[in-house]
């Protein structure tokens, strides 16, 4: 099956919604009710901008603007060349330039393109490049604004400027575009780093889609690239490589799951023509952001007013909460990062303070893999206990969300007893709503029965009461039960905790079926040997 390439998924993923809209506006530009720019031209433009490879193109564009201005004998403007020449095709621009002859001294059109002579230098823009440069003009006008572009290009209009003036204008436009893209694209460094990793993993040929990123590949990349960090990128730490690999897998995973595309190569809503729907791109990016949302939400106001997790627990959760399905697929890498990645961080910290010795390089890590895995299991238990405490608080406040939490905590629990057998089967929605409200009331009345200890709800309430009273953290006191803001925080915090619980549970269940001691022994030898290569030591 011909699927969209991993490289193109990376190009699309990083764009903001606004930038996607700009590209879509360019693609939807029409002339005589037909698309002005071909799909190939639009894709070339998107690739150039997303990969920040537009420097040479802007120099070409500035020479093209000089020639475009020369075609307007009245005002010396450039717009008519791009807007009145019809569909952006090489033949259309050739015909427009021929119709504008004779051109001023220093500008000449021939069979190959248009040449601008500045002193002893000549520069030719071929007809084949003009559709792309026309699309670039449309993009710059839409993204930066017509007034900004017009101000930058004024030195090029109404004559043949010096080569220095043309170069200076190209650099000025480049700076404007760079500033714009800072808010709408990942950093150039991040892009280079991710593409380097992608190229390496792709060359291994051991998987496709998200499975391109696997445990052996991550380790091989770090071992091969970390010693050349200064020349090839910031790959010296295993943690840095691991984080880049996680990001890459998330991009591929969400893209392949959500796009459901075959052969998609450009942005647009025409699936039959092989285009990527911009809405699908935004959906994938939103899903990626949501994947790491639980810990972020718990750490931000107003949820940070409630101590759902302490600092150590949040740090442990961060090892695993990488997005649905990511940590289980990269279980070995997660443990390598948690154990040996942290050991490397201690080495680099010692180097900063001038205290590195062989003991740090060759010493045993703070935990082996089984012990590290147990810490995640303990954290899972802590999250479950906190959810029970939250359930108790919501039940005490008779919040309707309590029932949703019951079903999440105990999905097999039987709540059939909430229905009143004497109630008729009403069809009217309002009556059904009243009966639903009545069921909720019966639910809370049942929970509040003094001394109720039997049945699944009674047992759950007993566990929840114990969990709440045993929780001495901020936001879990008896006084907090009467605070509506705290109860609102319980509602929002519960959804974040449930998402975190799911990721922890999936990882612990999957990793718990692997025999880790042999893996740990082999990795200890590998990491210690490579630490000596990176930092010196007995064999360094």
Topology:
Layout: H1 6-13, H2 17-27, E1 30-31, E2 34-35, H3 39-50, H4 55-70, H5 79-83, H6 90-99, E3 107-109, E4 113-118, E5 121-126, H7 130-143, H8 146-153, H9 163-182, H10 188-204, H11 215-225, H12 229-232, H13 238-259, E6 266-267, E7 275-276, H14 278-291, H15 293-299, H16 311-320, H17 326-329, H18 331-352, H19 358-362, H20 369-396, H21 401-409, H22 429-448, H23 455-469, H24 484-511, H25 517-535
Parallel strand pairs: 6-7
Antiparallel strand pairs: 1-2, 3-4, 4-5
Q: Please state how the strands of the largest beta sheet are arranged side by side.
A: 3-4-5
So what's the oligomer here?
single chain
Output mean pLDDT. Answer: 82
- Cα(first) to Cα(last) distance is 48 Å
Specify the structural class: mainly alpha
Provide the low-confidence segments as ranges.
1-7, 260-269, 273-287, 423-435
Helix count, per DSSP? 25
Beta strands, count? 7
Strand content: under 5%
Taking Cα atoms only, what radius of gyration do you get, to the nearest Å? 31 Å
Largest sheet: 3 strands, antiparallel
Helix content range: 55-70%
Domains, number: 3
> Which overall shape is indicated by the principal axes computed on the Cα atoms?
elongated
């Amino acid at each position: 099956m011909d699927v969209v390439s991993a490289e193109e998924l990376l190009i699309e993923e990083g764009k903001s919604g606004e930038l996607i809209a700009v590209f879509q506006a360019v693609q939807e530009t029409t002339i005589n009710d037909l698309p002005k720019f071909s799909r190939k031209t639009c894709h070339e433009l998107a690739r150039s901008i997303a990969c920040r490879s537009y420097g040479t193109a802007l120099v070409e564009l500035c020479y093209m603007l000089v020639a475009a201005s020369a075609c307007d004998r009245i005002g010396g403007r450039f717009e008519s060349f791009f807007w009145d020449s019809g569909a952006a095709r090489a033949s259309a621009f050739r015909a427009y330039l021929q119709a504008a002859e004779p051109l001023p001294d220093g500008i000449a059109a021939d069979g190959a393109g248009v040449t601008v002579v500045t002193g002893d230098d000549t520069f030719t823009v071929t007809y084949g490049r003009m559709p792309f440069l026309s699309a670039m003009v449309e993009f710059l006008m839409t993204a930066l604004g017509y007034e900004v572009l017009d101000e930058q290009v004024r030195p090029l209009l109404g004559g043949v400027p010096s080569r220095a003036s043309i170069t200076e204008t190209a650099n000025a436009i480049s700076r404007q575009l760079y500033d714009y893209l800072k808010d709408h694209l990942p950093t150039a460094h991040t892009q280079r780093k991710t593409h380097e990793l992608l190229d390496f993993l792709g060359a291994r040929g051991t998987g496709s889609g998200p499975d391109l990123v696997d445990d052996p590949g991550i380790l091989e990349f770090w071992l091969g690239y970390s010693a050349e960090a200064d020349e090839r990128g910031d790959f010296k730490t295993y943690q840095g490589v691991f984080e880049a690999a996680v990001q890459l897998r998330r991009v591929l995973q969400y893209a392949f799951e959500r796009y459901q595309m075959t052969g998609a190569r450009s942005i647009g809503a025409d699936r039959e023509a092989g285009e990527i729907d911009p809405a699908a791109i935004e959906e994938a990016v939103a899903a990626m952001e949501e994947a790491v949302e639980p810990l972020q939400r718990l750490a931000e106001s107003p949820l940070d007013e409630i101590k759902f997790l302490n600092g150590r627990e949040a740090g442990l959760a961060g090892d695993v909460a990488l997005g649905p399905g990511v940590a289980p697929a990269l279980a070995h890498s997660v443990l390598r990062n948690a154990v040996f990645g942290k050991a490397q961080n201690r080495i680099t910290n010692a180097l900063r303070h001038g205290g590195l010795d062989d003991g740090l390089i060759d010493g045993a890590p703070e935990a082996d893999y089984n012990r590290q895995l147990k810490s995640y299991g303990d954290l899972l238990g802590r999250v479950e206990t906190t959810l029970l405490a939250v359930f108790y608080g919501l039940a005490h406040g008779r919040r309707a969300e309590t029932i949703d939490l019951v079903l999440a905590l105990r999905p097999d629990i039987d709540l059939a007893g909430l229905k009143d057998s004497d109630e008729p089967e009403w069809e009217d929605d309002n009556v059904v709503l009243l009966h639903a409200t009545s069921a909720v009331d019966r639910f809370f009345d049942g929970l509040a029965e003094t001394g109720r200890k039997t049945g699944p709800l009674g047992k759950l309430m007993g566990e929840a009461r114990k969990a709440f009273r045993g929780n001495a953290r901020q936001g879990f006191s008896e006084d907090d039960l009467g605070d509506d803001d705290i109860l609102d925080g319980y509602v929002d915090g519960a959804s974040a905790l449930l998402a975190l619980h799911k990721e922890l549970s999936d990882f612990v269940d999957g990793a718990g079926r692997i025999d880790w001691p042999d893996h740990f022994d082999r990795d200890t030898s590998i990491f210690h040997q490579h630490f000596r290569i990176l930092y010196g030591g007995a064999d360094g």
